[in-house]
Amino acid sequence: MGLLKSKTLKVNQKDGVVYYTFPAFDRLPFIRHGFSTRLGGVSRGDYQSMNLSFTRGDCPSHVSENFRRFCAAIGVDAGNVVISAQQHNTRIYNAAESDRGRGVTRERGYTDIDGLITDRPDVVLCTQYADCVPLFFVDPVRRAVATSHAGWKGTAARIAAVTVDRMCADYGCRRGDILVGIGPSIGRCCFEVDTPVYEIFAKMDEFDESCFVAKPAGKYNIDLWE
Fold first, then answer.
1. 146 close to 125: Cβ distance less than 8 angstroms
2. Domain boundaries, the chain
3. pLDDT score, position 6
4. Which residues contact 159 (CB under 8 A, 6 or more apart)?
5. Backbone torsion region of residue 117, taken as left when φ is above 0, otherwise alpha when ψ lies between -120 and 50, otherwise beta
6. What is the model's pTM?
């Protein structure tokens, strides 16, 4: 797989909406993508301004307008968006045309979904993040895409590998063709975990001690990107 890290992100602005993209993905003519920021929306107060969550108490009409603005900025239709329902697991949902609007213009109708995949050109995948790691997947051969939400639980449960496996199983993708972008998230400088979490990672075959920095009182800082 090809791997892109957030240092390769490009800052974009259109009609007041500020968002990030991967330059390598920008060169692929069959996709539109972006990571939103807090800039360019209509929400007020604590939600100012580009809030894209309907579940945190913001005015629904503001959130809907924010989706319209953000989607217009990246060149997609907000009515085609499908939003995940994240619970820090590894369940992946195959989004079809019939799912368009789930989480934006109508109820999701599903729960416990931390990753979305599709090969439909008129389906827009949306996963949401606080400080967890955004993972974007693109197969330019099969023209299949995916997004996954990777906190420490999802990372320990190998959600990236699970997502790739689903793309291969559902769309006939080959691992070597898939590009993976790691988006903006909390870094090792700030992400502190306790000993039980460290021990979960220490039992993994892929464990790398260099991804952890030991601190006093049984605490560790962890690098989820690595």
1. yes
2. 2-185, 186-226
3. 45
4. 90, 114, 115, 135, 148, 149, 150
5. beta
6. 0.94
d(CA 34, CA 197): 31
Token pair for residue 151? 């906190």
Rounded Cα distance between 182 and 173, Å, is: 20
Integer Cα distance of 117 and 171 in angstroms: 10
Q: Catalogue the E-assigned strands of 95-174.
A: 115-118, 124-126, 133-139, 144-150
Q: Across the beta sheet with 219-222, what order do the strands follow? A: 192-194, 219-222, 212-215
Q: Which of 102, 189, 109, 179 is nearest to 144 (CA)?
A: 179
| Cβ neighbourhood burial of 21 (10 Å; 0-12, 13-18, 19+) | buried
Specify burial of residue 53 (Cβ count, 10 A radius: 0-12, 13-18, 19+): middle
Is 1.10.274.10 the CATH number for 2-185? no
Q: What is the pLDDT of residues 36-82, one digit of tens each?
A: 999 999 999 999 999 999 999 999 999 999 999 999 999 999 999 99
Ranges of residues in the chain with a pLDDT under 70 are: 1-7
Counting Cα atoms < 13 Å in the Cβ hemisphere of 222 gives 24
DSSP H or E run through 153:
helix 152-156
